[in-house]
Amino acid sequence: MKKILAFIIFGILLSSNLYFYCGKADLITTNNNVNISIGDDPPYYLLIIHDLGLGFSKIDKFLTHKRNRGLRPTYISVDTIKNDNTINGKDLPEKIKYFIKYAVENWQTEYVLLIGTDPYLPARNVISYDTLLGETEFPSDLYYADIYNHDDQSNDLCTWDKNGNGIFGEVEVEIVNDENRIFRNIDGIDLYPDVYIGRLPCKNADEQESVLSKIIDYETSNMDVYKKNKILQIAGDTFAPPNDFTGVCEGEEANKKIAENIPNYYEAIQLFGSYGNLKTQNIKTYFGQVDYVDFSGHGCFEDGSCWKTYAPEDNSTILPNKDGFTYRNAAELSNDKKFPVAVIDACMCGKFTAGNNFLAWALVKNPNGGSIACFAQSSFAYGGVGIGFLDCFSGWMEIQFFEELFKNNVTGEIWADAISAYIDEFYTTDGRFWNCNTCKVAEQWILIGDPSLNKYIDNTEEPNEELDQKNTEYEIEYKLDGSKIYAQSFSPEYNQKLTRIELYIASRGNPDGKIIVSIRDELSGEDKRILSKSVSDISNSFAWVEFDIDDIKLQIGGTYYIIYRTDCSESVSNYYRLGCSNFNSYDGGEAFQYNYVWSKLSSVDFCFKTYAINSEGNEPPIITDIIPPEGSSFKVKEELNFTVIGVDPEDDRIQYKFDWGDGTQTEWLKLVNSGEPFEQKHSWDDKGTWKVSVQGKDDKGNIGEWYDLDVSIDSKVKIIPRLSKIFLENPVVKTLIKTFFKVNFDSKISILN
After folding, report:
1. pTM as predicted
2. In the CATH hierarchy, which fold is given to the domain comprising 465-613?
3. CB 3.0-4.6 Å disulfide test: which of 10, 346, 356, 579 passes with 474?
4. What is the tens place of the pLDDT at every residue in 563-582?
5. Which of the listed CATH numbers 2.60.40.10, 2.30.30.40, 3.90.1150.10, 3.40.50.360 matches domain 622-741?
């Protein structure tokens, strides 16, 4: 992305009450022969082409938001392009493409966002050869992005209609014999994107306001700043008998391939037909817990309004139910604290000319859930049968999209890079395609979303994680099965947080359970964190295996324990193996074995590494007040508003986590300034007295203590702060509270215990 630069004012000579955008985020109406003075010169990195009929709700705020992110946006309406006789083009789509070419060459435009849908912001319909399926053409926004033919040095527009017959994207078929055909690209389609393009196919002002607000909130309010390091994979048997007798569940195999290629710290949540867990409710449950979602299967042929697949080798059983996962299900998603990026490898789910209910748009336009962007196809998708599904057509593209998603942070660049990689793989330099529909696969992938969108916004400074304790001298191994429990003690040097551990382990045979690791501060005490890995995560050869920890605060010189156990059966041939060193090579701790009581293992230490954050001198935030909701009594299902105020000793920004005492808690919420009140709402489904707990974390990652209050539901309010007298009598806390809140500590403070 470009660095933030000073924003400039843009104006052009317009006519007939047309609209344009100037640098102060003003939308100006011009009259005939009015010349708006031009300010500084371009560049304008983001060009927004907009259907004037949608009105201007949120457009000005969106432009200001993008300006503040350094994209120097500019705006033009479709009507302006349509009515400007100086812009070339045989029809409106070609005039729009010529205008984009002008912006690329004169304004250094890199991103183009289309706001509106066909016919008001028209699609370029490209010829389809799927005549057996009744399709003669399909929409392609790649048309607007493919500005030049890179084999032609003339710099002319790549029109996609080289022969001038008004049919776009033609290929010529030469029949050599019954088994061999040559397909020629006679319309000179280059296919490589020259700009990053995306579309928000809003049909009315309400949709426009909703989706632009969603993008602004995503990029500014930290709703989605923290990665989950998880991907949701949804698939079954894409081609089942009688069309396929290979026994391969194509969609599941594609997702398994993707899972093999993602970073090893990512967890794949797989809802598969073969696992029996591919259900609509499970999709809804996990949708807000992941960074990415992959649907691999089929779409509704009529309008792309649903996704579905088949049970293994059974095309009579549609999953996740007989209707599939529909646009109505997408509208019901309520994951408003986490909007993932979605990929839908299925027919028609990106066909924005088929109506307003296609699945990709249903996910993106949902203001309370769904996805923040979606890659989908605007026509009939192609895929190979059996394991060959992974090697061609949309199966190959599905895998490639996730390769790009893990390499790039900007959605439009991900879209363009995936298509470019596809062309590099399958397009030959002599103008021939190995199949007439190979080019169609590239043409029909659409980005529904903002092409300049950042997937993650790192407003939080990442603290410096360092290797703290280690024992890496592997000499012998210990067997771990269901009959054994081991422990290794260590003493940290960094007085902050344990973030992860690595263990040198392996498996033998096929253990029928997980390896379970926990952290304790007493050998026979409670587990502070419990982590596990399945046998599929553990190699038969020794390797370092990472266990990521929800950070634990440590004390320098304290003694902590890594506990090793498993829920697999006792076995002589199927078990886990723990790497060890001999002769007590680790000086900071000891190894133990549990056999009704703990006992030391003489001359042995287990191989391990601990990683911690050292933030010495930086203190965590202190919560100074939890303000209860107004009122004298509260009822079941009544939404109550709680306000928390915290201060940070270094004046760092703070984010909060709420535990509602009913088994639910929030994620870490958005960052606010130190001393700034933060509000959060909650309701309870049952009567009773509930303990509400709040914890603060600063933008350096330092986590403070939990602070509590009690709330009584369906009776006279009973809210009891649990801030102790000792806490309020602390001189440092007093000074902070006096400074920020002007509290007079000479007056009485009533503490209810």
Report:
1. 0.60
2. Jelly Rolls (2.60.120)
3. 579
4. 999 999 999 999 999 999 98
5. 2.60.40.10
